[in-house]
Design a protein that fits this description.
The chain has about 140 residues and is mainly alpha-helical. The chain has a single domain, classed as Non-ribosomal Peptide Synthetase Peptidyl Carrier Protein, Chain A (Orthogonal Bundle). It is about 65% helix and about 5% strand. It has four helices and two strands, in the order ααββαα. It has a two-stranded antiparallel sheet. The longest helix is centred in the N-terminal third of the chain and has 35 residues. The radius of gyration is 34 Å and the shape is elongated.
Length: about 140
Amino acid sequence: MKKFLTEFKEFALKGNVMDLAVGMMIGAAFGKIVSSLVNDILMPLIAAIFRLEDFSALKVLLVDKGAEDVNVYLNYGQFIQNIIDFLIVALCIFFIVKAINNLRKKPEPEPEPEPEKSDEVKALEEIVALLKEKK
């Protein structure tokens, strides 16, 4: 049992697990921001353009049982709402990932080491140096 607890502790405290936990918390907070953007700002504008009270109000009556609460509706407006939510969330995530990638410092290329001179080149350089000394 002690070995199990030790292994679990090592697993839980690894950097990847902690990074995942932080990412989940930030993602949850970001999800609330995007949901508010969609529900409180964008959808009222879109509904005003289409002169609708709300997209979720769009529905087709499938079965009429006489009372509003027992009728069966095809709620395609809610489906449209969810598609718009998804597209906006995906667009926001795309912009965030793109911004993070632009902020990352690109590694500078390492200077190429000078190639090792061959024995012939070294000998020729020595000869040139000796000739310069004799002048």
